[in-house]
Amino acid sequence: xxxxxxxxxxxxxxxxxxxxxxxxxxxxxxxxxxxxxxxxxxxxxxxxxxxxxxxxxxxxxxxxxxxxxxxxxxxxxxxxxxxxxxxxxxxxxxxxxxxxxxxxxxxxxxxxxxxxxxxxxxxxxxxxxxxxxxxxxxxxxxxxxxxxxxxxxxxxxxxxxxxxxxxxxxxxxxxxxxxxxxxxxxxxxxxxxxxxxxxxxxxxxxxxxxxxxxxxxxxxxxxxxxxxxxxxxxxxxxxxxxxxxxxxxxxxxxxxxxxxxxxxxxxxxxxxxxxxxxxxxxxxxxxxxxxxxxxxxxxxxxxxxxxxxxxxxxxxxxxxxxxxxxxxxxxxxxxxxxxxxxxxxxxxxxxxxxxxxxxxxxxxxxxxxxxxxxxxxxxxxxxxxxxxxxxxxxxxxxxxxxxxxxxxxxxxxxxxxxxxxxxxxxxxxxxxxxxxxxxxxxxxxxxxxxxxxxxxxxxxxxxxxxxxxxxxxxxxxxxxxxxxxxxxxxxxxxxxxxxxxxxxxxxxxxxxxxxxxxxxxxxxxxxxxxx
Length: 531
Known about the structure:
There is one protein chain. This protein is α/β, with parallel strands linked by helices. The strands form seven sheets. Strands 1-4-10-11-12-13-16 form a seven-stranded parallel beta sheet. A six-stranded antiparallel beta sheet has the order 17-18-19-24-21-22, with helices on one face. α15 runs antiparallel to α16 and α16 packs parallel to α18 (429-445).
């Protein structure tokens, strides 16, 4: 938030821009009081205090009220797997208070930590190897899944659940309408397991949900479950998290751009996209975090792809090391023992705009802009809540001025207000992207067929073209290739969709569907019956 508006008051002054863009959902990254070393705000010292540099809790409550008056829901983070080692609970534990030592997972010697560690994965093997940190003052080992200054909470202690519920309801009382549950799969530990995604995790979420539905029934939970792709949906339900990030679609979008093929994308979506009533996806392209290639090897194998090899290819492609790559991503947290690596970079740099501008190549620039609009057309037309990472709408490039070894800061730049002032200048990349994304948002808002979540992914008959329908009344076609593509209209369920004289909602032009349909490079259409 500080990189967008500086302070909470500054954010209130920018509400007119949020309205101009058509936003109705605003997720602020953690803005609570934290120590200087805070993992980007995810080491929370107090949920009841705002970082003084940003304002006060009263300012946050005022912002929430003003956003609501303008039809915008406020989304905050509940970082509930761990606290900062400077949280009041941790300070009391460090001082020897046994009650608060029981709030965390602590061990007198390495016997149990060593047994646990055998089945745990390292989240940050380069910056923070291992999952336990020795604290001299207590002469104890503390469980620290992420960084040594983030102490994992002990949910086998009922007092911890009650305490976290109190923090949760406090945030709801400040005006939060959605709480993102951070690092949710990690909250329960068991010896001999990876201590991720265990059944008890779901019981805890259900308990928090049940209490929230009594005390704050309008509050929604959003899942951030970075787990095996086939397990992501297990966190989504009316009694757990009503909405969830859709990492599977995010990964599929980038995979399809790199390969120019949509068969894997469509196959995965057909099995992983459907959700039960009363729930929906939050579809996104980029976020504050790195990209990990979280597709299921089982899904890959079903379309003839070796998952391990494909991840190696995607890592090479998006770090610019594969011949013909258009991307300018940065390798994040490479683990030489496993070959695992994630990718940092802004949406525009990963989509090829940075390289195109550096080479002053007009065709590359055209293709990059079309790629950006193509992937945004998918999340804006598929079922769910589309999420814009602010700055994407201006095609923001990587920021290489960061210091330290956390290159995720490359895609967390300060908002470019000079580019914002030129957002209507359609001769610039920023102006073209802004104008087109805003237009798609406006079309979405006035199109009832794009409401709710029902989405059916189809076989287009052309591996370069993604096809899906909405409510059997709207057909989306998207060409993921830089070459024009044809598809046979007889391959599509036009009768079921009642499409005769089709009309493209994006261009407001007719689109003949008899015989062969031609899509230009990276072209997409949102088709409805002209009648």
